[in-house]
Specification:
Elements (H helix, E strand, L loop, with lengths): L13 E7 L5 E7 H5 L5 E4 L2 E4 H11 L1
Antiparallel strand pairs: 1-2, 3-4
Length: 64
Amino acid sequence: MQTFGRQALLPGRTYALAFHGSGGYMAHVYFTADDLASLRPGQVWADGRAMSTKDFDELVDDKC
C-alpha cells in the first residue's frame, strides 16, 4: 500500500478497522481520535471501550 499526504486521525470522525484471524474469526473495531487519545499506557481500545491488555486477552479468549 502506498500513502500520500498527511496521515492523521481527524477530530469528530469515526474510524473502522476490520480484520480476520485464524479459524474464520472476523472482527470490527470502531474508534475516534479522542478514544485513542484517552488510552493510558498499557491500555487498548476494544469492544467500544478502553481496557487493559489482560482484559483484552480474556475478551479474545471468550470470543475465539
